[in-house]
Amino acid sequence: MKITLKYIGIAVGMVASFVSCTKDLELDPISQISDQSFWKTEGDVTGALNGMYVRLRSQAVGNLFMWGEARSEMMDRSLGGTADYQLYYLNELNRSNVATIYGMGSSTWQGMYTVIHDANLLLKHVPQITFAVENNQKQALAEAYTMRAFAYFVLTKTWGELPLITVPTEGYNPDVILRERSSAQDVMKLIKSDIDAAQSLYPSNAFKAGRNTWSKAALKALKADVYLWSAKVMAGGEADFRTALDATVEVEKSDVALLDNYASVFDYTTKGNKEILMASHFRDIEAVDNIYMNMYIENTYMNNTTDQATKDRIGQVGGFPFWTMSATARNQFTSDDQRKDATFIEIYIPNSSGGTNYYGSVVSKFNGTIVGGVRRFLDDYVIYRFADVLLMKAEAQNGLGEDPSEAINKVRKRAYGVNYVNHTFVKGTKIFNDEVILKERLLELAVEGKRWWDLVRFDKAFDLVPSLANRKTDRYLLLFPISETTLSIEPKVKQNPGYK
Q1: C-alpha neighbours within 13 Å on the C-beta side of residue 280
Q2: Do residues 479 and 496 lie in contact, with contact meaning Cβ atoms separated by under 8 Å?
Q3: How far apart, in whole angstroms, are the C-alpha atoms of residue 480 and residue 57?
Q4: Which residues form the SusD-like N-terminal domain (predicted)?
Q5: By 3-state DSSP, what share of the chain in percent is helix, strand and coil, each rounded to 5?
Q6: Taking all residues of the chain, what is their mean pLDDT, rounded to a whole number?
Q7: SS3 category, 414
Q8: All CATH 1.25.40.900 domain ranges in the chain, comma separated
Q9: Domain 2-81+90-254+481-489 has CATH 1.25.40.390
């Protein structure tokens, strides 16, 4: 049976074979690789794993941010117009426009299902391949289980019910490849089962170089995230809070630490640092610029009267200012919080009264690097990092009625430095603590693709997102609409309730 694979590692290997065998030009098409010809060696598995992560990166270019943050109160228009991004932060998405956004995102689930397909292929074939070292086989399977759990978790947070596919899609039989949606509860069962399977397989707690592949510690971060969602959104209660808390404690035992300098966590030159648990890797030639290029500033939009100190901070400009952090978000940062300058830069210009007026702002977090005199937005897309886990720990502790102060204050000590004494957290009621944790997550994790899902988990979207303030009875808006594209190619899939 033929299957279609587009792994970069495979393609590169075939190109190399072509160059070295110019006398024999009768090659099979590289898009068609049979089970019999490919899944033979450990090297085949390495190529397939690489392909799976490349496919994840195709989602990290824009979709992970669009799904996880774009609909929150975090974003607003910038100097260059909207490029239709306002459909997200104004919460005007519908079945017709959700898949048609400028450049960096396309809110359909098809791309993430290709990641699931890659994981399914690995889970099917890896057990049949002989490895020189058994632990390498276990590692490959663990990464595939983790990836499938992550992909389904992202999708169910976004769309709720999903077609559940746990075997590779091989062939074109519509009775096999076209599925109705399974309940969110059944999707969550699979996610938790995959997490358990991966947990039993990881041979060690070690990270691979770059921290851009799944590891046991990253799995534990995912587990905490999943069980917090299950506890709060799916009525999992105390048992799920306890599981989430235990997972965060396990992360703390791994090779992780908060960096003293907040900005260096995201710097292009410090990728794979000890605060990172899992990131999607971007590098020149290998990848296109990611979503953050549309939060910076092109020369055309730079004001000539901006003071030199601000120009120096912005540095060599680039990107397109189609959206930026909203005033609602920016105004929550205090001047003594090092996260403020490391997250955004406000631009002021002189006015006729001798003062200054606000002109605009750019997102300075993930501002890339200079390649050939051009700013390229090739910072890794961070999926999990240690500060995120500490705040998940505080959330789980609060859910259990325990004191979350230590975890919150670890994050604040780094943020405020010598001024930490003025920002020390002291526990209050559960409601108060949750409000503090949610705000701390805004300050710590701004523009990292977390905010919308945080608002849904804390049940605060209708309270804190301005465009939802008068729509509190429209609970269906917590899920995304399913696009016309998806509905047209998957006839057994029905639209989410509430969307016409």
Answers
A1: 29
A2: yes
A3: 21
A4: 43-228
A5: 50, 10, 40
A6: 91
A7: helix
A8: 384-469
A9: yes
Which alpha helices (DSSP H) does 206-304 contain, by range?
216-233, 237-252
Length of the chain: 500
Q: Which CATH architecture has domain 384-469?
A: Alpha Horseshoe (1.25)
Domain with CATH 1.25.40.390 in the chain: 2-81+90-254+481-489
pTM of the model: 0.92
Q: Identity (one letter) of the amino acid at 287?
A: A
pLDDT at residue 101 greater than cutoff 70: no
* Tens digits of residue pLDDT in 168-205: 987 777 766 788 999 999 999 999 999 999 999 999 99
- What distance in Å separates the CA atoms of residue 101 and residue 483, rounded to the nearest whole number? 12
- b/e map 20-45, b = 16+ CB within 10 Å: eeeeeeeeeeeeebebeebbeebebb
Residues 320-327 have a mean pLDDT of: 96
Residue showing tokens 């995102």: 105
Cα gap 29→12, rounded to integer Å: 14
Structure tokens at 328: 């609602």
Q: Is the CB of residue 71 less than 8 Å from the CB of residue 452?
A: yes
Give the bridge partners for 362, in sequence order.
345
Whether the CB-CB separation of 368 and 375 falls below 8 Å is answered with yes
- Would you say 10 and 30 are in contact if contact means Cβ atoms under 8 Å apart? yes
Give the C-alpha separation, 116 to 375, whole Å: 33
